[in-house]
Amino acid sequence: MNWNKNLTTTTTLFPEITSTINIYTTTTITNYNHIVKISFGEQLKNACKLFRFYASIFLIIIGMIGSILSIKVFSSTKIRRNSSNEYLITMSFVVVLLLFNFFCDEILRSIVNDFEVDLPLNLVDLSKLLCKTSTYLRHTLRFAAHWIVVAFTLERLIVVHFPLHTSILCTPRCAKRVCLFILIMSFLVPFYSFIMSDVIPSEQNHQNSECDIMKKYNLIYLYLTIIYGNLTLTFPILIVCIVNILIVRQLLKAANIRKKNKNLQYEEAQLDAATSTILARNSKLNKSNAAENEYYQSIVKNQLENDKVTWMLVVISVTFGILNFPYFILWCYICVIRVRGKTPTPFVESAKLISEVLHLLNYSTYFFLYVISRRSFRKVLVEKMRCRCDCFEQWRLYEMRSDVNNKIQNKKKISISQQQQQQFSNTNTTHIISSNNTNHNYHQLLVVRQQDNNIIGNDGHGREKARTRMIIVQDDKNIDKTGDDNKYSLGNIV
């Protein structure tokens, strides 16, 4: 009985123990999977932080050097001062300040917090005034840099679609006014960030402090940041995309028109060669045509230069849209998550760190775009740097050779056009001389006939002289006989 009782008790307890073990095992496996997922996300986030740190340092150095060189080149008297140069000078100055502020704010903070360097390098996190100033400048300079891109993109639209208004709306003075207006607005719009930012204790380590928004303004700051983000990212990207489509469409159309005009000019040159005798009768018409051709060539040359500048600015604005679009998408997504009261996952934060690198790359590539797309920029840059290394010397020699080749080609074109005009003028003069000789022979014939009539009337011996003169006149090839011996007429002069 006792054995049966113990067996019954053991049988009753065994399912409970088994179920408890299963529950514990399932919970352990679930927690292990959760730990693995969190650790992988954190590792990815840490790797992205490390990548952003080194990439940001490299891009800041390259971007600041390139922007300073751009200011030096565009401010030079050796390059033509136009409205686009004013925009690019202002944007280069803004980019220098923006990259320097990013270095003082993000890079120095990463050195102290992520690499655990026990040095007071993060001055922005230690001073209340520096914290407010850095936050305010970050918002201000981003707003200014993005809207300057919009400004010169709209200016190129005016140049391409409304060329008659270029002399009024696209002048350096007008560009300076637009840049001044953008800077004033960029200082006024994000002023809330100066008021709401302060040095507060860090959430991870309460012994340290960091520059952030005060907690009492978190909700208000979130909604104001959404408005600011739309003004800084959404509207500029949309405007740049739409305007660039219109500009590229018009540029391609203008290129096709110029191609057709070249074909028409070639056909007109052939017609001029065939009908040069007709045009030769009016020398003033030839002079007016030559003047019109020179004027047309000057217009085409200026239009080609404007198109080169337009293509460069289109490339800059397209690069702006491509590199800022991922940051814009992730920024909107994180704002929506925070409005709902949630926190973004480590994967989303990792993607945001990568998009910040692309956003920073946007400011660092402007100098290289200038070098690639503008030959005048390269030429002035070579003269300004005064460096004597081998590669630089080869680059300088290459630019000099290209200058010489371009001058030779232009001289050849001018000489060919002058030769064609000289040939036309020679043919015209020969026809004019032949026509003048024919007219002179005709007048001589009339005088001879008049004298012969007088001689015949006075003396019979004069008839023999008249016949001999008629025989001499008959040998002239420029005179056609239309009747008897006493009737002659002028032949076909032309």
Automatic annotation (TrEMBL):
One Pfam family linked to the record: 7tm_1
UniProt keyword annotation of Transmembrane helix present: yes
Top-level taxon of the source organism: Eukaryota
Subcellular locations according to the entry: Membrane
GO CC list: plasma membrane
Primary location class: membrane
GO molecular function: G protein-coupled receptor activity
Keywords: G-protein coupled receptor, Membrane, Receptor, Transducer, Transmembrane, Transmembrane helix
Record has Glycosyltransferase as a keyword: no
The protein's name: G-protein coupled receptors family 1 profile domain-containing protein
Source organism per UniProt: Didymodactylos carnosus
Taxonomic lineage of the native organism: Eukaryota, Metazoa, Spiralia, Gnathifera, Rotifera
